Amino acid sequence: MKVTVENIKGLNKEVKVFIDKKTMNTYMDEKYEEIKKTVNLKGFRPGKVPREILKRQFGQSIFSEVLDKVLKETSVKALEDNKIKPAGQPKLDLKTYGEDKDLEYVMSITELPKVELKSVENIKFNEYTVKIDASETDKRIKEIAKSQNNFIDVADEVKAVDGNSVVFDYKATIDGKDFTGGEGKNTQLILGKDLFIKGFDKQLVGVKKNDEKSVEAVLPENYPQKEFAKKKAKFVCKIIAVKKSEAVKIDDDFAKNLGSKDLTDLKLLVSKQINEEYKNSLDKLTKTQILKEIENFKVDEIPSNLVDEEVKILAQDMGEEDTKKSRKNLEDVAKKRIKVGLILNEFGEQNKIKVTEQEVQAEVQKQLRMMPGQEKMVMDFYQKNPSALESLRGTVYEEKIIAAIKTRAKPNKKEISKEEAEKILKEHQKQDHDHNHDHNHDHPQEKKAVAKKAVAKKAVAKKDASKSKAAKSKETSKKKVSKK
């Protein structure tokens, strides 16, 4: 194989690859031998079909497979040997090809720019620790206790009032006739919340234990049996119990019911949770600081094809006219994103940062926990959209890179109060709002995270570079062969 690299302009290169016909014939011989062992043709014993017969029957498809294989192997090797990293899919042009012929093709490539990493040790960022007062922890625990339903029976002669819980059995009819779903046992309602059937529970105000009470109500529009929806029903209710709410006592037993060893343990846990809530939000500010610092690193040239792709992403919700007006602004934002993405990816490569399948699945599980009740929908989404899963891989990759940078950079450690944390977050939120407001008429998408998509795409590309390049070369070669 002979490879010639020609610099065209800037990051644009042409890589010429030549494979002599002797080498090509060797590939063809191997393929014919492979086919001969498996093909069955009438009149010939297995493995004894002459090559001329095989060529007449399968020659075109055999050559196509061989060509794909050679293009895949040689294009990847040519790029790797010459340390060329394409920015996007190379354009492949077959000059000479055919059975018993030399193979010659040209790859037109936009190369990724060389990225000179500054010393990340010079990056400065704020690292916050939020000090949670005991009063804040106690306040949160009281809120938890208040949310716990703690009902105790009242005396038999005491009448139910709003806020009480009434437990009852019922039998319901429509026009004197039973209907599906018209019977219930041990139904419990908290009076005044109107959560059963509209207007139902207010008719139970004043009942006592062992009373029998008739209640009339109109079945809701979304009643499971459509034929009974919006029909007036009569409920005969047998009152089993009336209960009143009693404040939950905050003690060791209360803590144990919530899974803690005792009240002291619960306070430690709640304090940690509050701290984590603020820390997660403040960590996002830290990440923004680091990305801003990285923007100061130097990249000589940004590949124009990547800029075009990124502009399309930024403008995906914009009309054609708005896109034209905002083109300059969109390109500036696109270049910034790509630049940061390239720098982060270079850092990831130099430091051999990888993303494992276990880490990707852990991120999926994290998302499942954030969407209770919709787990199946989320899983189906990722199973049907492999690109979404790879984008998630990119997010994990970026987070690992940022975490690695933090360990090398210069943190300005600050212990702050909850009030100070809220003030910082509020100010940052206002700055984001003002910034987006200023640019909304030009660029409604700028509020998206600056480097996320660029890094995600780079992470996906780097997952298996040789496989990706080979697949693209193969796909392109098919198109070229069919044209000729």
Walk me through the structure:
The chain is of the alpha+beta class and 484 residues long. It folds into 3 domains: 2-110, Trigger factor ribosome-binding domain (Alpha-Beta Plaits), CATH 3.30.70; 120-132 and 265-450, Trigger factor, C-terminal domain (Trigger factor, domain 2); 149-245, Chitinase A, domain 3, CATH 3.10.50. 50% of the residues lie in helices and 19% in strands. It has 14 helices and 11 strands. It has helices at 21-38, 51-81, 134-147, 252-257, 263-294, 304-314, 320-325, 327-350, 357-370, 375-384, 386-408, 418-439, 452-463, 465-483, and strands at residues 2-9, 12-19, 91-96, 103-110, 124-131, 151-153, 165-174, 177-190, 212-218, 232-245, 410-417. Strands 6, 7, 8, 9 and 10 form a 5-stranded antiparallel beta sheet that branches. It has a 4-stranded antiparallel beta sheet with strand order 1-2-4-3. It is extended. The two termini are 23 Å apart. The model is unreliable at 437-484 (pLDDT under 50).
